[in-house]
Design brief:
Length: 368
């Protein structure tokens, strides 16, 4: 008895055997049953020339949608002059407008450098795709309205960025990224900055420290941890397997009891990473207060970055300042070079050490 045929699920048409890149106009033409010239006219929305029926137009558009076809931005720029627009896309849920938001100084640097180079800015929030972090196909497609685009945020849709890079669309990520391969980025030297903070604490006499960080693989977090561990190694404290505390929810897992246990084991300094959520520093501050720990008399605190806006009125933390405005400007310089078809390189930007008021010598033995 013949096996019943499986019903094909609706969605994108299967890619032709052997093709690994994005779909081409020739494939759209074959699927729609028209010539490639017709496809070109329909997709370019050219009304002049041979008349194209609405039925044919819809067949072409449906075939393009089915295959996931997107225009070749390099060819499009050859066909039309650039429009001197640079895109800025934030992977936060809404675009930051609060001047205290950690992204605001980035945007100041972006705007100043763009104006200096004669570019206007187009701000994309991802609202049309269900939010900036949406993973829908071609969620970043609208950025092609600009000549190139800057991206901000810890967690970006890698597949969508990979498509933009593969298509030759000028893209710069503000912050180090390991993937997709070929993505240009600008970043701060978090490794050296974190190492300097550890060196400062060691110079005050601290011999055991713990880093509190979120449990993800964001490159900015990885770099801070690397610098922290290098700093411990440099002062002879490298053999300490419990020196890093990772948590998906620091505000839940970093309890006063845990802090007291660390203090009892000889830990005298706690270091937190900065993220766009501020979760690690907020959790550390709360646990210290709930445990009745006097800072810096009983323990020293340090922050690898700047405090979130809602904690900025507290004692200035020992740590470092991120040159966000300079990073924004560097990102625009790199993007402008890519748009012009030039080689683009920018060195890591150094962070500035901040002595702060939350660190001091460790307590004498028996003072806890």
């Amino acid at each position: 008895m013949e096996e019943p045929r499986k019903r094909a699920r609706p969605g994108r048409a299967p890619a032709p055997a052997g093709r690994t890149g994005r779909p081409r106009q020739a494939e759209v033409a074959r699927l729609a049953g028209v010539s490639q010239a017709t496809v070109s006219l329909v997709l370019a929305d050219k009304r002049q020339g041979p008349a194209i029926s609405e039925e044919t137009r819809q067949k072409v558009l449906e075939a393009a949608r089915s295959l996931g076809y997107v225009p070749d931005p390099a060819a499009r720029r050859l066909a039309a002059a650039r429009n001197d627009l640079l895109g800025v896309f934030s992977f936060t849920a809404t675009f930051p407008t609060d001047v205290r938001h950690s992204y605001y100084p980035f945007l100041v640097g972006v705007e100043r450098e763009a104006a200096e180079r004669g570019y206007d800015l187009v701000l994309f929030t991802g609202s049309s795709t269900g939010g900036a972090g949406a993973g829908a196909p071609d969620a970043l497609g609208r950025v092609r309205l600009a000549d190139g685009c800057l991206f901000l945020g810890r967690h970006a849709p890698v597949q969508e960025l990979r498509r933009l890079v593969a298509d030759g669309f000028p893209v710069v990520h503000l912050g180090r990224r390991d993937e997709p391969e070929g993505l240009h980025w600008v970043g701060a030297d978090y490794v050296s900055a974190a190492r300097e903070v550890v060196g400062h604490l060691a110079s005050l006499g601290h011999r055991r420290m713990v880093l509190v960080r979120e449990d993800d693989e964001a490159p900015a977090s990885t770099d801070r941890e690397l610098g922290f561990l290098q700093g411990l190694e440099a002062v002879g404290q490298g053999d300490n397997p419990g020196a890093v505390f990772r948590s998906a929810d620091p505000e839940r897992d970093l309890t006063p009891e845990r802090l007291r246990g660390w203090l009892a084991d000889g830990v005298t300094a706690f270091v937190a990473e900065e993220t766009d959520t501020g979760a690690a520093w907020r959790a550390l501050r709360r646990a210290v207060a709930d445990a009745g720990i006097d800072c810096p008399r009983d323990a020293s605190l340090a922050l690898l970055g700047s405090p979130p806006a809602d904690l900025a009125d507290g004692p200035e933390p020992t740590g470092f300042d991120i040159p966000r405005t300079r990073l924004g400007a560097a990102a625009v310089r790199m993007l402008a070079a890519l748009v012009a078809g030039e080689e683009a390189t920018e060195p890591l930007v150094a962070c500035t050490f901040r002595p702060g008021a939350t660190s001091g010598p460790p307590p004498a033995a028996g003072d806890h």
